[in-house]
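Hey, why these numbers?
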Amino acid sequence: MNEVDFTTRMQSSCADNLFVKRWSPRSFDPYEIEYAQLEKIIDAARWSPSCSNEQPWKFYTALSSNPAFSKFVGFLSEGNQDWAKQTSVLGFIISRNFFEKKQRINALSSFDCGAAWMSLTLQASLEGLYTHGMGGIDREKISDFLELDSDKEKVLMGFAIGKIADKKKLNSTLQQREEPSTRKNLNCIWKNF
């Protein structure tokens, strides 16, 4: 396994290492994840909180061994395709924008999907895996491929899951960016009265 230096993050945080060591690398090993392991990761997302317990998320995934994986790679921006094709899993998170029973807009659906994404990410971390969320995707092509009802469902993001690899596998530009980022100080984001 490749060691990542989280020293700077750990020195500036009182949070548990599960959160501090959550990071989105781009250098992945072409490790073949087991279906049961992926199921466990998605199941963790299923238990996320949501407004009125609507659970407005859907996850579409493709294991690297599945022919759909190369199709999913094609839905990514050019910059993401280069590194993402080495991951174990590619997926997309879809948000249902309406309450199922009330048939009115759910203003919190994207927020709830974000909570599910974080649960997925933390479970992957517990499995010794890393995730990388991606905004650089072709939402229209994904929506067409998945046959979504664009009036009620929205493609939010793409994601990759896998084992971290040495950053030397990346091109020189990405190698320079391949390290855990810092965070704003607590006093910049929190005011306690």
